[in-house]
Write a structure and sequence with these properties.
996 residues; Aspartate Aminotransferase, domain 2; six-stranded antiparallel beta barrel; PyrdxlP-dep_de-COase; seven-stranded mixed beta sheet
Length: 996
Amino acid sequence: MPKILPKIQGWGHITCDGSVANLESIWAARNLKFYPLSLRLAIDDGSLSFIGPSFKVELADGKIKLLKDCSTWELLNLKPTTILDIPDRLSKEYGMSPDFLQNALNDYIIQTIGKEYLEKKFGIENPILYFASATMHYSWPKGCGIGSRNLIPVPVDNDARMNLKKLEKFLEKCVKDKQAIYAVVAIIGSTEHGACDPLDDIIKLRKKYERYGLSFVIHADAAWGGYFRSMLVKPPIGSKSGDRLEGHEESRDSFVPKLALKSYTEKHLESLKYCDSVTVDPHKSGYVPYPAGSLCYRNRHMRYHLNTWKSPVIVRPNEEESIGIYGVEGSKSAAAAVATWLSHDIIGLHQKGYGLLLGQATFSSIKLYCHWATMSTDDDNFIVTPFNMLPTENCFLPNLEKIKEEKHLIRTLIVEKSNHEIIECDPAKELIKKLGSDLMVNTFACNFKLKVKENGKEVLKLNEDINEANYLNQRLYEEFSLTSSKDTNEKKFLILTSTKFKKENYGNCLKNFKNRLGLKGDQDLYVLINVVMSPWVTEFDFLNELMKKFQSTLQDLAKLLVFRNTIEPDYHAFVIQGTDKLYFTHLPMFQMENHRQQVIFTAELPQNIKEDYKKARIKHPSRVYFLGNKNKMTLEEIVFNGNSFEGVIYKGFDSNDQPISFIEKFKVTGVKVLKKRHLATVFQDANYPRDRMPFYIYGTEQQLHIDHILLKYPSIQLSADCVELKLTQGILTQSQREKGAILHITDYYEYTMQPFPEIKKHGSSFFFQEGREFNVELYKDPVSDPNQNGPGLDDVDSNTPFARGTIRLPRKDDAGCLFIDSYSINKDPTAKYKVKDGEIRERPLDKPFDKYYYDKFEKKTETHWYEEKRTKKKNIEEQETDIKNVDEQNTEINVTDEQNTKTEERKNIEETDIENADEQKTEINVTDEQKTKTEERKNIEETDVKNVDEQKTEINVTDEQKTKTEERKNVDDQKMKKIKTGNEEENNDLKGEPNP
């Protein structure tokens, strides 16, 4: 029988941070788990064979057995304390020296022969597992040398604490499958919400399953929460901190640590002493400067299982061993250790030291939580919802009236009272212990309200779109954070951090939080976090003033979100496809409700208008023309069967994204809807297609068109008319063409390409380009109703296409065109706006923060992987050959008689900048209103000739360019001659076409 051993002694050391401490704990648990196997090998094959007949160990279920007779399962599940006692027992029972034992085991330990050898030798087929809360810190999978797939995330409950029932199911399965466990990690103060896992219950659970032969290490990741244990420790008699605080107000000394901590949290903090190892970060709640982490072992012998190698340089006889041989870092600065020791010595690890400091900060955090929980009312245009539920919310069927009553109680007993009044009020003290997070972290999210009509009355209704709520919280984060090196905290009265709650990590916990915010859908949620470290923020009226400023900012941003999400009459544009029967595809915008729909419809134009359009298409077959509504209308007013409206045709957009008019004042009739799908978040798929690129295909027997199906934000609009379809199997019927079928390009996978870099409207050279041919499969549209929304718009059986073949996009000279856009479709039009004095205004971009913010949401297009990188020399050569045919450059210059007097001035301008004319790809339409601006334009271009016509490109004239100057001048003379004729040839072709 084992002899009685000395009392367990703990040991710990400073690390650079908590991540390294966690990493070290993983290695220690791994090595400890394999130590009995190594000892068994040394008994069977090595110099410890003499102890085989007599050395017994206690199994997890309490039975005593010879170690050499234990099964692999039994050896893998010895209690951590049993394993750690083995060296001392061998010394006492057999008189072994530490050096002998180390040498005897050296050839068999995992540090020498590796995990794979031991697993193979002992027939371990199922990998040994690690368990941690699904909300674990990122350092756990990063540091997991056992393979991150063997680190099992345990689901969390609605408070983001480890779900004990889920953990128990995992343990049951491990017993059934004979699968060993390295460790279970309990988080004491999670990074994103300050939650405490039920450590005390996990310890009890281990004891329960030890009866079934299963045991493991328990590690507490208390990087944030470790120091809060000092709130429960009474100061030692004669302590410096305690003596120094004797003159302070007694009520404060005794009240704060007790009042601010939940009874739940107290219980699990008390259980830290039973953990095998604990991570604690002095540079977090210990108020020690960075960097200072630490790892503490309950049993000092556990340090030996991390590393047994010693260096003669740092370890000499009769000298204390260097701490470096026990950690993963080796040599390190002593500054962190000195800073930690000094703080502990001066402040004190007890209720009148750190306990007082953290108790007051926790109290302040709860008061701030009370402000978040009660900030919004039914009449506000926003809500603020703390992640941690109120007591009346945390029940099976929450009662709205009771929740309102509790909020009123919080306002009257806590929010509107001073600290002293709260201390003197027993109901307030009782209530405050039930509020907020476990450990001083306030996580919350905001949403906004829209005005809607119900039963003829206008009421406020919560926004349901997750993306829009995320946008609001992101704008709040930008407002209350330091996001640039040029930012200062002079005007930042509140600093917030942020994170994203991911569906795969939070599961039902996230679903519950989104329900409380009034949101629908499976998307991840962007949330805000505030942490109170100062014990003085609740003094005077500081907190109330701070909350008023936050509330004012939130009200303004909510108005901006209402603007983004309110449907009002507006101008819309539709790509025109085909020339026999016309089809129109909407230019959607994910970030504006006015345009948040994918729409395809057919309609009739007056015969003369259609003929003018067809002539223009013949002359410019690859140019994209657009249909627009002449007067502001909503999409619902435009797109419904049988509708008619006054329309215009555009022949492109200028550099400011303003449409360039081509034909005006005609009637669009006979609207017939093919597809009308709303793009709100709730209607989007969770993921992009993994093995295809989906399109709608529709049209006539002679002319077929395609439009990319928009399934998820962000996305890209890819439209092509007059494509060539060659089927090798099956047919596309007239009915399928008229209703629209689904076409899959199987050569490219959307999942691998999203999100697409910005592609401006005028095309690019990536995969969707002129003349490209693709393999395709055709399917019946699973959503037969043209007005039905997603998700699941592309849910087809990939094994049952009704046709297969190839599709070729129109070539440059074919009677077909491409439209490509990943810029406007994803663009945020409200990024450059802010609300001031109740009005939506453009935000100035001269301040560092504002410029950062605008750049973040409105990035300028740069050269991306899909773009052609042409040299300037090549550009010049192309311009010299192309300039003789201006009409082919997508730049059409219409000069009236009044403009002829200005020709000589324009010639001078173009001589200095003609080399960039082709790159404009916009049509210059000079109307009567532009005549008055000609002289201003001349002055601008004379003083800043490098920035003519808003091209925003810089002309660098190389040696090669200088030699071309005279040739260019001759070409320009010819061009000016053509301009003076007023483009008579084209005017004759389009005779009768209305002047824009």
